[in-house]
Amino acid sequence: MSYETLLVETNGRVGVVTLHRPKALNALNSQLIEELNRALDALEADPGIGCIVLAGSERAFAAGADVKEMQFLTFPATYRDDFITSWERLSRCRKPVIAAVAGYALGGGCEMAMMCDIILAADTARFGQPEIQLGIMPGAGGSQRLTRAVGKAKAMEMCLTGRTMDAAEAERAGLVARVVPAADLMAEAMKTADRIADMPLAAAMMVKESVNRAFETTLAEGIRFERRLFQALFATADQKEGMGAFVEKRQPGFARE
Ligand code: CO8
């Protein structure tokens, strides 16, 4: 499969997708989104892939939706074509996705990082929703996911003023899982991804589904949902192997079915 705006490779059980529009700081245009969606389809369909890493460049994860492409859009066209909806494919990925963020993650770039399950940030990372400065507002979930991640006070301030957060503030606020030196970002992301990819696949996918459910339902419903998935895992060979290996004091050999 060929891509012009992405680099896609597999490394063991990890799929690595690197946004690659260096001259535009990885601004997200329709071609990139179409290619990203295609890459995600392929990685999800591959039973040998257990985790996906989404990365940008040292300078920018992504500096937002491509303003040059959006400049002349009209309301009837955005409404008719349901502009932006196709960007949500990433949030529907059922396998765990790690965003490795260095440099700018602005607008749609920040939203894309927040569609991932874990954000690992380089100490150079900057997060922001500056759309208001362009006369628009976040359109790919930013006002919702940022608010859930960092709370109303910071989300409201960032979306209303367009100010950015550095990596340290993003970690304190709960937006990112961990901050690492920029030079170590990809190695750390791969280490985390390898660890997840080595887990029983069904369990990893169910963990993702269950944690995400916490944002969409009541506590009682969420706990009921978790319990059903928990019970279902007793139907897997990996549960027998994982518990058997523990009791027999040996390393498990998971089938990762
Ligand atoms: N769109 C198009 N081109 C861009 C973008 C962008 N978002 N960001 C940077 N570029 C281009 C610049 O135009 C420039 O190109 P050229 O060399 O041809 O002039 C090149 O990238 C390098 O950029 P700069 O010269 O500006 O680099 P600086 O280091 O001076 O500044 C900044 C870096 C601060 C990141 C600056 O480029 C900037 O402010 N960019 C725009 C950030 C922004 O406003 N982002 C939000 C865009 S709106 C949005 O994302 C809407 C989301 C709606 C949902 C989207 C669904 C995912």
Automatic annotation (TrEMBL):
Its EC number is 4.2.1.17. CDD domains: crotonase-like. It comes from the Bacteria. One of its GO terms (molecular function) is enoyl-CoA hydratase activity. Belongs to the enoyl-CoA hydratase/isomerase family. The keyword Lyase applies. The keyword Lyase applies. It comes from Ancylobacter crimeensis. This is Enoyl-CoA hydratase. InterPro entries: ClpP/crotonase-like_dom_sf, Enoyl-CoA_hyd/isom_CS, Enoyl-CoA_hydra/iso, Enoyl-CoA_hydra_C. PANTHER family: ENOYL-COA HYDRATASE, MITOCHONDRIAL, ENOYL-COA HYDRATASE-RELATED. It is an enzyme of class 4 (lyase). Keywords: Lyase.
